[in-house]
Each structure stands twice: as C-alpha cells, then as structure tokens.
Amino acid sequence: MRFGIIGSRLAGAYLGLLLRQAGHEVLLFDNSAGREKPCGGGVTPKALRTIPWLADRRLPHTVVDTLRLLTRRGEGADMRLVNPIHVFSRSTLDAALREDAIAAGARFFPLRASRFTAENRKWTIFAEGSAFEVDFIAGADGATSSVRAAVASRYAVSDLSLALGYYLPGIHHQNSVIAAFQEPGFQGYLWSFPRVDHSSVGIMRWLPHAEATDLRERVARFIDSHVPGPSSAKTFYAATIPSLSVASLRAQRVCGPGWALLGDAAGFADAITGEGIFYALRSAELLAQAIKAGRPADYEQAWRRDFGRDLLRAASLRERFYGSGRRGGSAVERAVRLTGRSRTVAQLANALISGDVSYDRFLTMLLVKSPWIFREYLQRSDS
Ligand SMILES: Cc1cc2nc3c(=O)[nH]c(=O)nc-3n(C[C@H](O)[C@H](O)[C@H](O)COP(=O)(O)OP(=O)(O)OC[C@H]3O[C@@H](n4cnc5c(N)ncnc54)[C@H](O)[C@@H]3O)c2cc1C
Question: Probe ligand 1: pick from 115, 277, 282, max atoms within 8 Å of CB?
Fold first, then answer.
C-alpha cells in the first residue's frame, strides 16, 4: 500500500520507519521539520523502556535524576528519580528518526500539505503546487493538524493548552528538571529542562484561561530567580499542546476508511503534565501493528486499551490537581509538601513517573498507604 504521512517528526517519522520495515511505500511530508520544535524534550523512563527505537539509537542527551518541585509560596521538594528522565534536543531526536525512515526507503518531501481529497478509495494530497495519490493518509501533523480538520474537526479552545518560553544558552541545573506550580486554579506549570548545550524554559496553561503577556511575565520572573544568565541570546517559542477533556477523548474517533491520526494530531498528550513524546511514538507503533495485521480500524480500540485509560484519568483529575483546596492552598501544593516529607509518597510518585503504575493505581496506593504517609509527614514536620 502507498501511505501519505503528513508531519515528519516523532509520530510521523516513526510510523514511516515502521511501515517501510513492513514493506509499504511511504511518502513523508513536512515543511518545517528541520526547525527546533517547541518542547521540553523530556523523555520519561516508560518511553525509554518501552520504545525500542529510543533504546537502540544512541543520541546526545542529558540525564536528569532529580525533579525539583516548587510552589508559589517558595516551598519545595527535591525528588530523586530512581529511573532518570533523558532530555533531548527535539531537532536532534526528530532528525534522527526521519533519517532512519529515509534510510529505510521512505520518500521525504519538505512541503506543506494544504488540501486532501478522497475519491474511489484513493486520497490526493495537494502540497505547494504538486499532487500525490495515496491509498491511506496519516495525520501526524501536530496540535494544529490540517488532516484532523479535514477528516474530523479542529480542537475546541477548551481542548488545548498554550505553552511558551525560551531556549537559553547554557545549562543551569545540570541533573535536575524544575517544575514550579502557580496559584490555585492555574491549570499548568513552569519548567526548566537542561539540554545538552542549552536550557528549555517555559510555561503551559489551559488555553481558556491563558493570556500570553501574563505567561511571558511569569516566565521572566522564573528565569530571574531560577535560571539567571545572559538574557540577550534567548530564543522565544510558543505552541499549543492538546489537553483533551474526558468528553472529547471519549467522543473522538482517530481512524476511519483510509485515514488515521496519531500523536498530537490525535490529542494524545497528558492533560496534567503535557507529556506527549511517549504517546506520539506509541501511537505510531499501534497504528503500524494494526496496518500490518490488515485491520487498520483496530487502531481505535488499540490506543484506548493501551494508554487511553491514562489519558482519561489525567483529564478527569486535572481540575482537582490544580484546583483550590479547603484552606486556600491547591492540591498540587499539598502534593509537593507530602513528596518532600514522606518517603512513601516520593516512592509512589517515582513509580508513577517511571510508568510502573497508572494514575488509578497511584491514587489507590496513596489511600492504602495513608497511615504511613501521615506518620512520616508528622515525623518530618517535628524534626
Ligand atoms: C512547549 C512544549 C513543551 C513540551 N515538553 C514536552 C516534554 O518535555 N516531554 C514530552 O513528552 N512532551 C512534551 N511536549 C509535547 C510534545 O512536544 C508533543 O506531544 C510531540 O511533539 C508530538 O509529536 P508529533 O510528532 O505528534 O507532532 P509534532 O512534534 O508537533 O510534529 C508535527 C509536524 O507536522 C508538521 N506539519 C504540520 N502541518 C503540516 C502540513 N500541513 N504539511 C506538512 N507538515 C505539517 C509540523 O511542521 C511538525 O514538524 C511539549 C510540547 C510543547 C508545546
């Protein structure tokens, strides 16, 4: 079969590689693949463990073994990560994946695909004056997906978060990622990721409440206090991240006759953390498996069974996680306090970040272990 894949970064290039390995003809399209993608570049232990390509391909990265959690009141907790996070420059990561797909025989077109029409079980992709006929079209074209717009509908504002920030020269906290939480009700957080030769610093907030000037001011204050350095050489970035509600996740369909969506174009990002790299790569694997089995429509069930439950849980918890608590604090502030004072909470949070437990299991274990947690909390508060 002949596949047209729109978007050639993680989801698109990985799908292209896997489909070539299965003997299909692959056309990859991307008009800005060479540019750095706005992203922290943090790859979780679960992704490192379960995506074979990441384990096999040795690319420059930094190793982060500490997660520094901060609250707006200046409280903090340094959490040692049992399984480290690896931080990549996205241009390096995406280019390596695309090179592997091309080496496997995929044809790459540095073009913007602007229109897609279907007739007699064939698709025509129109890109910058040229037309390409394919049997199947895959939308791996990110949060602003034109394929999604053509086969389903664009995201509602309430299904997106706004992210913006800077690439800063130099590395300011070698082995740690910083996550700084804001006032109760602020659905999002600030971060700083140390990359190989620069830092990626930014903020995300649920789009209905996001205001670019406010976010830029918050990032500026954060840089002054946590990542000081020469400000003239910083490079600004802004992008949206899918943050689908429970209703949208349940209602959406990511494949149909001769088409499928994956990665950000399919809304596969964690609504609390914004993590999407794992889901982009995993969705490419699941779609490739369904195609290989000759049943592309099985992809819909496959993603729901594989990671759909986790995305739904994150979406259902987001408001509570970032919301106000009874005494004016937020749930996330309590979580930071507990992580700093209870070894049990730190262990459970490690298991969650490593992907060893789901959100559901994590919450159950917090409840089961609450007597220990309470005792540890009191002991640390007294000392
Ligand atoms: C600021 C920020 C920080 C993030 N940090 C992290 C993090 O630390 N860890 C993590 O796991 N996730 C993070 N994410 C999420 C992660 O970046 C995404 O989930 C991931 O990049 C999705 O990959 P993708 O291949 O689906 O899409 P993308 O990486 O968005 O790639 C889509 C590609 O499609 C191309 N394209 C779009 N339209 C067309 C068209 N019409 N024709 C041709 N090409 C087209 C684009 O040029 C782009 O290259 C972050 C996101 C943002 C915005």
Answer: 277
The DSSP symbol for 324 reads B
- Which is it for strands 107-109 and 130-134: parallel, antiparallel or unpaired? unpaired
How large is the average pLDDT for residues 187-203? 92
Tens-place pLDDT, residues 103-161: 999 999 999 999 999 999 999 999 999 999 999 999 999 999 999 999 999 999 999 99
pTM over the 0.85 mark: yes
Helical spans, DSSP H, in 59-209:
90-103, 146-151
d(CA 223, CA 238): 16
Alpha helices in 83-171 (DSSP H): 90-103, 146-151
CATH architecture designation of domain 2-43+90-155+244-315: 3-Layer(bba) Sandwich (3.50)
What's the CATH code, domain 71-85+157-242?
3.30.9.10
- Do the domains 2-43+90-155+244-315 and 71-85+157-242 sit in the same CATH topology, yes or no? no
Which atom belonging to ligand 1 lies closest to the Cα atom of 10?
25
Residue with the smallest CA separation from ligand 1 atom 37 is 141
Report the alpha-carbon distance of residue 216 to residue 184 in Å, rounded: 19
DSSP state of 128: T
Please give the structure tokens belonging to residue 239.
């992008």
Domain boundaries, the chain: 2-43+90-155+244-315, 71-85+157-242, 319-382
Around ligand 1, the residues with Cβ closer than 6 Å are 6-7, 9-12, 29-33, 37-42, 112-113, 140-142, 146, 163, 202, 239, 241, 263-265, 269, 274-278, 280
Comparing CA positions, the residue from 331, 351, 338 lying closest to residue 378 is: 338
Backbone angles phi, psi at 106, to 5 degrees: -70, 145
Q: Do 238 and 163 form a contact (C-beta atoms < 8 A)? A: yes
CB count within 10 Å of CB 68 equals: 17
**Cβ count near 322 (within 10 Å):** 22
pLDDT in tens, 260-288: 999 999 999 999 999 999 999 999 999 99
Identity at 112, one-letter amino acid code:
R
